[in-house]
Amino acid sequence: MKIIEKNKDQIIFSAEIDDSLANAIRRYINHIPVLAVDELEISRNDSPLYDETIAHRIGLVPIKAGKSGEKAKIKLNIKKEGTVYSGDMKGVDVVYENIPITTLGKGQELEFTATLIYGSGAEHAKFSPGMMFYRNAAEITMDKEFLEEIKNAVPDADLKEKGGKITIIDDKKKDISDVLEGITHKKKKKMNVVFQKDMIITVESFGQMEPKDVFKESINALKKDLNSVVKAIDKA
């Protein structure tokens, strides 16, 4: 395994992994328990938005996780003129404090109470902690006549020259295969693509947990279900 790029919201790495397993891990991200709003009681809403619209926006605000299984509450009672943001809510820590909820005019008020529970993205998108996508690393070969065009289009490409051919290793953050295909297509020539064993995997977090933890917890959720299948087979 090799880390290609890492920051607080995203991790990109290469790993030798079968695509069916990578897809299973991707799907099981939506089986990770995540804290989000379950019920919202609006006692006053003088804003221009319907109660249902405000409830929808509150439901999709990413919440920092507390203790697994516990319920939490959010309260908001605000009379200020201007934009109401997610950071104005009290009771839990939100991931992003500047998500706009609605606007209030002079003398207007918004008051509500929300109950939060743990759920999974398989139930509703508001419980999703992030996403994952992947592709195969590739070795791309084409005629040397395209050398200058490739250098201009992809200046950081890993190029190797041999005879009248150029070989490009496509194993970085950015997928350059479409760019290279566009270059060869102009002259109606083909490039030869040989896919490698390594996958380039990108995991993005919506902020409730670190990207690496999204990947790890997805694997744990997959293992749990597989263990259940094994136990069921043993009892059969």
Walk me through the topology.
Layout: E1 2-6, E2 10-16, H1 19-27, E3 34-45, H2 51-59, E4 72-78, E5 82-85, E6 100-104, E7 110-119, E8 130-143, H3 147-153, E9 158-162, E10 165-170, H4 177-186, E11 192-205, H5 211-235
Antiparallel strand pairs: 1-2, 2-11, 3-7, 4-7, 5-6, 8-10, 8-11, 9-10
SSE order, one letter for each helix or strand = EEHEHEEEEEHEEHEH
Largest sheet features:
6 strands, antiparallel
Q: What best-fitting shape do the alpha-carbon axes yield?
A: flat
Number of helices: 5
Spans of 5+ residues with little confidence (pLDDT < 50)? none
- The Cα radius of gyration reads 24 Å
- Strand arrangement, major sheet: 1-2-11-8-10-9
Number of domains: 2
Distance, first to last CA: 38 Å
Content-based structural category: alpha+beta
Strand tally? 11
Mean pLDDT: 90
- Helical fraction: 25-40%
Proportion in β-strands: 35-45%
How would you describe the overall organization of this protein?
The protein has helices at residues 19-27, 51-59, 147-153, 177-186, 211-235; strands at residues 2-6, 10-16, 34-45, 72-78, 82-85, 100-104, 110-119, 130-143, 158-162, 165-170, 192-205. With 236 residues, the protein is an alpha+beta fold. The protein folds into two domains: 2-30 and 131-203, no CATH class; 34-123, DNA-directed RNA polymerase, insert domain (RNA Polymerase Alpha Subunit, Chain A, domain 2). It has a six-stranded antiparallel β-sheet. It has a three-stranded antiparallel β-sheet with strand order 3-7-4, covered by helices on one side. The protein has a two-stranded antiparallel ribbon with strand order 5-6. Helix 1 (19-27) crosses helix 5. The chain starts with a strand and ends with a helix.
